[in-house]
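Re: the 140-residue chain
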Amino acid sequence: MRKEEKNNESDGGSRLARWKKIGICAVLGVFVLLGVSYLFICLYIGAHVKSACAQAMQEYPGDRLEAVIAYVESESHSLRKRNKAVWALGYLGDKRALPVLKKHFTGGSCDHNKYLCQGELGKAIKKCEGGLNPCAWACR
């Protein structure tokens, strides 16, 4: 083999090695970005769940889950605030919330002016029954 052919082969091999490194770094970068995003989103959700719990506990001191359940049941609060409490119950994922969630769940279409959000109730029920709840750790 001539010297020029050897240089071309070694140059091509080093290019391939560089592209492999770039590819590995890109894949690792994507995984790090996804991990940081997941962490940020879970912490954000957790902060809002804890805020909803704190708001409920101001009026209903004691166990935070029982306070949020009482908040959902109280018709003295707006439906919007009660829906936020339903959302929080879902992320808390405690089976003790199931009776109140199922009590209000009809499975029908939403009428946010008259009833609790059926979509939020359905999602909360699934989470409390053991469904996918990937940010639950940040809410407890």
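Helices lie at 3-59, 64-73, 79-92, 98-104, 118-128, 136-139.
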